[in-house]
Amino acid sequence: MQQDSVTRTTLDNGLTVVIKEMHHAPVATFWMWYRVGSRNEVPGITGISHWVEHMQFKGTPRFPGDELDRLISREGGMWNAMTFYDWTAYYEVMPANRIDLGLQLEADRMVNSLYDPAEVESERTVILSERSGSENSPAWLLYEQMLGVAFRVHPYRTTVIGERVDLESMTRDDLYNHYRRYYIPNNATAVLVGDVNTQEYLAKIEEWFGSIPAGEPVPPVNRPEPPQYGERRVVVNREGETAFVSVAYRALEVTHPDFLTLTVLDSILAGASSLNFMGTADTSNKTSRLYRALVETELAASIGGGMVATIDPYLYSVTATVRDGRTPQEVEDAICAEIDSLRAGNISEEEFEKARKQAKALFAYDSESVSSQGFWLGFSETLVGDSHWFDDYIDRLMAVTLDDVKRVAASVFDPNQRTVGWYVPTGSSSEREAG
């Protein structure tokens, strides 16, 4: 079997190209990553990156929107896209001998998407409906409120979907100008993984993408969050039957030397988090400290933690669903007690080794498929600027020591860097009307 190989190059127009040959199955995936997300938005156009992602499926003169799905499906493939804080990514997964369609489609919609005004208005309704659906989730409402409290300055303070007032007022020109500003070769990475020949596809990528002109360099986002000098709190009182408690701390950017140390700490506290949006590993947090301290004691119905990989420092957060008959204060106290114990260095060598192995296993499981490899390579290139970040992830993870974990726990879990949120249900609207 031919050994897997990775090639990285940059076209004259600035497009970064990463190709990895994997010949164990006749499948290939093609990804287009753009360095644009909600971090690039300002008040008035929050949510615009996500909306532009939707519009990119509406077609071009060559590939009309109503034909795109049929073309992909007819060849036995699938496609989708995702927008996050720092990036937007599009991908196709297809039989390897049909992946050319994915490359041609992405090259075409990098420059030729139409943004028909009627389609813009139709999609406005879709996105406002998506926003309404999120607002119906107590956990999401609490998350949105906590972001606004935890961040005063940085664009991370706004959710990816954006503010309703902006979604109602943005214009077709706003969307199209955002598209033209950021969807340029020198702000993008093309990733091809699968049963392909590198030299053949380097030539094809040059043919289909090489003539697209580079755009003006994208200005950096320079809105560092000022220091936090004390705990911040938010309470959401709204209809519902279930209470939630969330505790979040200022965390570390993905390029920080201690980022992988925090992933081990996360594995101990809440159960290992997958950073892979394509991950399919079936993980359990039942051996984590928070599960044993809150779910097994029937304080909480569920609890989960979250590592998020971002260009600038984000938050490390845990959220619990309060069990009926228990109070948010009881749950908060139990969460903080476990975190304070970690901060005090109460971690055994055995617990550390188990957590590190769990984090390693999750990464390995979430890196097996062709589509996951495409994700990881594009993610590494886009956020870190180096696809090798993925290649030596496990080596760096296994280099983390118990002393490292204790040091990072003492630093990250500072109570002065904490934001606490409660969702306190007020009962259903029908109950209030009856009362």
What's a quick, concise take on this entry?
With 435 residues, the chain is of the alpha+beta class. Helix content is 42%, strand content 18%.
Structure description:
Helix 1 (48-55) crosses helix 7 (172-182). Residues 428-435 have low confidence and may be disordered. The protein is built from 17 helices and eleven strands. The chain has helices at 48-55, 65-74, 100-111, 117-135, 138-150, 164-169, 172-182, 198-209, 259-269, 289-295, 328-343, 349-365, 370-384, 388-391, 393-398, 402-412, 429-434, and strands at residues 5-10, 16-21, 27-34, 78-83, 88-95, 188-194, 232-238, 244-250, 300-306, 315-322, 418-425. The protein has 435 residues and is α+β, with helices and mostly antiparallel strands. Helix content is 42%, strand content 18%. The N and C termini lie far apart (72 Å).
Give the percentage of residues in beta strands. 15-25%
Enumerate the spans where pLDDT stays under 50 for 5 or more consecutive residues. 428-435
Number of helices: 17
Secondary-structure content class: alpha+beta
Which bin fits the share of residues in helices?
A: 40-55%
- Give me the Rg, rounded: 23 Å
- Biggest pleated-sheet summary: 6 strands, mixed
Distance between the termini: 72 Å
- Strand order in the largest sheet: 1-2-6-3-5-4
Mean pLDDT: 93
Task: Name the shape in a single word.
Answer: globular
In N-to-C order, the SSE pattern is: EEEHHEEHHHHHEHEEHHEEHHHHHHEH
Number of strands: 11
Topology diagram in text:
Blueprint: E1 5-10, E2 16-21, E3 27-34, H1 48-55, H2 65-74, E4 78-83, E5 88-95, H3 100-111, H4 117-135, H5 138-150, H6 164-169, H7 172-182, E6 188-194, H8 198-209, E7 232-238, E8 244-250, H9 259-269, H10 289-295, E9 300-306, E10 315-322, H11 328-343, H12 349-365, H13 370-384, H14 388-391, H15 393-398, H16 402-412, E11 418-425, H17 429-434
Parallel strand pairs: 2-6, 7-11
Antiparallel strand pairs: 1-2, 3-5, 3-6, 4-5, 8-10, 8-11, 9-10
